[in-house]
Structures are given as C-alpha cells and as structure tokens.
Amino acid sequence: MRIVVINHVTLDGVVQGPGRADEDTRDGFTRGGWAAERGGDDAVTRAWGQRLGASSGYLLGRRTYQDVLAHWNDQGGPFRDALNNTPKYVASNTLTEPLPWPNSTLLSGDIPAAVAELKKTPGDDLHIMGSGALIRSLAPLGLIDEYLLCTHPLVLGSGRRLFPEGFVPTAFDVAEVTPTATGVIIATYRPMSTEGDDLRLEP
Description:
It is a single chain. By secondary structure, this protein is of the alpha/beta class. It has one domain (3-146, 157-196): Dihydrofolate Reductase, subunit A (3-Layer(aba) Sandwich), CATH 3.40.430. Helix content is 25%, strand content 26%. It has five helices and eight strands, in the order E-H-E-H-H-E-E-H-E-H-E-E-E. It has helices at residues 42-53, 62-75, 78-85, 111-119, 132-138, and strands at 3-10, 55-61, 88-91, 104-107, 125-128, 146-152, 171-179, 185-193. A hairpin with a 5-residue loop joins strand 7 and strand 8 (185-193). Helix 2 (62-75) packs across helix 3 (78-85). 27% of the residues are buried.
C-alpha cells in the first residue's frame, strides 16, 4: 500500500485547525476554522472524494483519530458511517486497546517500522489527514509516497506547519495542479529525494 497525505494548508504552511475554531488550540492558536470558508468548494470536494473513495483506510495520529472520530460520531450522518466502516490504523504510544471506534488497529512501539511493514501489505492507498506529528516522523524516512495538498490563499502568521523549520530538505515532483474558483490550489506532489544539506533543487 502507498501512504498518501491529504490536507489543507495555508500559503505559509500552516495545517493546524483548518476545520473548526476549537479544533486545535495548542500553543494558543486562535485562528482555527480557516479552511471552512472554502470548505464547500466543489473542486476540493471532488478531489478528496475521488481519493477517499478508492482508499484502503486511514493512517492517523492519536489526536486526529480522537478528534475526528469524536466530532463526526457526534454530528452523525453518512460521513460518520464511512469513517466508522473504514479501516483505521492509529499511531500512538499512549493509547491502549481496545480503541473506541470500530475497525481500528493500534500501531505502537517503533511506529515508523510498523508503518513500513504496513506498506508491504496489498491494497490501495492509506490516507493521512491532519496528523502533523505523524507526517513529520514518517516523511524524512521516505515512508510517504504522495501529498494531495489544498493550498488556501491565506497567510496566518502562526500555527503548526506541515514542514517546520529544520525539516529535512526534500525535492518534489508536481504530478497535477488544479486551481479552483475560490482560489484554492489543489496539487499532487511526490517526493523525489531527501539528500540533506547536499540537496540540489534543479528546475
């Protein structure tokens, strides 16, 4: 299976709290819900739907797993059933089994090694949503195969970023780019190399 990230991001790289004001207030973040204004963008909805419709499941960090599932189980509706029925792999060294939501499998201990083993199993893509800490732990090891990023025309100036300062230099191949009517840029990126300080960024 491939590991594919699907996330909203701002022009300055923030991924924290896109959906709701109270989604993630860590470090005093007060700008949550920044993606909601364009959340009804048909092109964004289609792009996410196409990917998730052919998914083998979700790979999530503890916080995203607990927040997303709790939110949608409280909200109800078809999205709740889709999340509950889909296999979920939860990377955490603090949670214990049994996990609270159906079809959930705990990955603990050496999580990058567990994910590497998971990638060897047959199936379609596993999708990471949110889960910034998990992404930052897997990406430098070459365990993420693709990113579908919806970049919003916003600069927030604060918040947790997808690739923080000090992240290993990485070049990407841009596989597909789609601008939308609301100004969101939907782009698919595939990592090409992680060569550290010797990385050569060539056109």
